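chain below, 273 aa
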Amino acid sequence: MEQLAQCETLIVEKQGPTLHLTLDRADVRNAMSLQMVAELSTVFSQIEQDDSIRAVVVRGAGGHFCAGGDIKDMAGARGQKVEEGEVDPFYKLNRAFGQMIEQVNQSSKVVIAVTEGAVMGGGFGLACVSDVAIAGPTAKFGMPETSLGVIPAQIAPFVVERIGLTQARRLSLLGLRIDAQEACSLGIVHQAAGSDEELETMLNQALERVRHCAPHATAETKALLHRVGHEDMSSLLDSAAEKFANAIRGEEGAEGTMAFMQKRPPKWAETKD
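prediction:
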């Protein structure tokens, strides 16, 4: 694996096929600064073609996932004059976050969000683009933007995709804050742990399942799922059949079939440090 860029707002640790990304601005409940956005984008760009990484675990330091956007960045943008013909700094700030969250959403890796404490605004959006989301007992989720006089511009589309329009309306238009159990019932997270120990157990179980699934097949499946609802169904199924044929004739398909017949784990399920 190539050396990952040095980060000031993230703790980056590789453990076997898993990259652990910890948002590391605990003094501000891991509020999302422009620097953090840029560093997350850089890391996800670097690992996209790295076959040694199969899962990315995103969590926050100091007992919180992410409290939303950084107030200092917003204050800085407010202080900038916008000359005629120039792009509004608030637009650039907001759109940069949207581009990063879209990148995480489209990543070929399995993205697992471990949510604790504040999961607000941008943090809520980041949780909503994960493939697997697990909530700890302290997690509180919310879209408080409307109560602050702004709008959840970049996260709202992903929230709608995650939980549907009717629930997204209720959460965003009322600026609600909900606990882990309600977040689980709505489908924001997949599991809600009753203790820190249970949270770690759930994470380890998810990572174990990732290890048992073929990496290329997993990436192709994720890409296929993202196409649903955006393409004509008949042509999508034609394309999916081609990819199925390629998969079953490919290296992973041959290994998976042989492993099944020989009653042994496939090579990709072997433990590698």
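Residues 89-106 form the longest helix (18 residues). The chain has a mean pLDDT of 94.
thats it, cya
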